[in-house]
Amino acid sequence: MSSPEIASLSWGQMKVKGCSTTYKDCKVWPGGSRTWDWRETGTNHSPGVQPADLEEVVKKGVKTMVIGRGMSEALQVGFCSVRNIN
Fold first, then answer.
1. Tens-digit pLDDT profile for residues 25-70
2. 34, 27 in Cβ contact below 8 A?
3. CATH number for the domain including 48?
4. What stretch of H or E contains 79?
5. Which residues form the domain of 69?
C-alpha cells in the first residue's frame, strides 16, 4: 500500500487525492492523511520539525519519508528529528 497522492499544492493549501479536506499542512501515510497541527508539538519554522511530529507517521509503517519544508523552504528539519527516525 502506498501513501495518498498529493493532488494539488499551493500557498497554504494542500489537497490529497481521495480526501475532501483541504489542508494547510498535513501528514500522509499508507491508507490515510490528517491535518498537521504544529501546536501539538511546539513546532515552528525554527527550530523546525520535532521528533514527535514524525513519530506518528513512523508508527504507521512508512518505509520512506518525505519532509516538506514549505513553499519558501523556511521550515527547518533538525538533525535530532531525522536521527530519531532511522
1. 999 999 999 999 999 999 999 999 999 999 999 999 888 899 999 9
2. yes
3. 3.40.1230.10
4. helix 79-83
5. 6-83
